[in-house]
Design brief:
Blueprint: H1 22-38, E1 47-50, E2 56-70, E3 77-88, H2 94-114, E4 119-128, E5 133-136, E6 139-142
Parallel strand pairs: 3-4
Antiparallel strand pairs: 1-2, 2-3, 4-5, 4-6
């Protein structure tokens, strides 16, 4: 007995490469990512302050800062209000950073006192890996009668 219908032909073998666009798209995506990371706009020029110590620093952050926290163990709610200043440093001269932090405190203490702020947080700061990682060393100053006599916490 013969089958009256002929057998179905096999599907054609794929001759084109199905992933031929994946390699160029990958390189195009990498090119865009590298352009954003390496050639991004550094932003507006930063403020530079001349300190009484004779140093000039580049200010990264200058904010009237409020912060709050809740302790899960003791169920206490705490709040803090301080003037926060960060300036650029390379951390190669710790004594110089301390001197510059004291200079910033001398400049800002009278203004912080007039605003009713009791603490000052001054941080030499270094940014690495295109600004994704920030290192800082905080210096705390108590504001008393328009003066910041010494570092409270280091």
């Amino acid at each position: 007995m013969t089958d009256p219908s002929p057998p179905n032909p096999a599907p054609p073998v794929a001759t084109g490469r199905p992933y031929r666009w994946s390699v160029p798209l990958f390189f195009l995506l990498m090119l865009v990512v590298c352009a954003v990371v390496f050639f991004n706009d550094p932003g507006p020029p930063k403020h530079r302050w001349k300190l009484p110590t004779g140093d000039t620093i580049e200010i990264l952050t200058y904010e009237n800062w409020y912060e709050g926290s809740v302790s899960m163990i003791s169920k206490r709610v705490e709040g803090a209000h301080y003037l926060w200043v960060q300036f650029r440093s390379d951390f190669t001269d710790p004594d110089g950073d301390r001197r510059r932090a004291r200079g910033v405190a001398q400049v800002l203490c009278r203004g912080a006192d007039s605003m009713g702020i009791a603490r000052l947080k001054v941080e030499p700061t270094r940014k690495r890996f295109f600004g994704l990682v920030t290192f800082s060393r905080p210096y705390w100053f108590e504001v008393k009668h328009g003066e910041c006599p010494q570092v409270v916490l280091n």
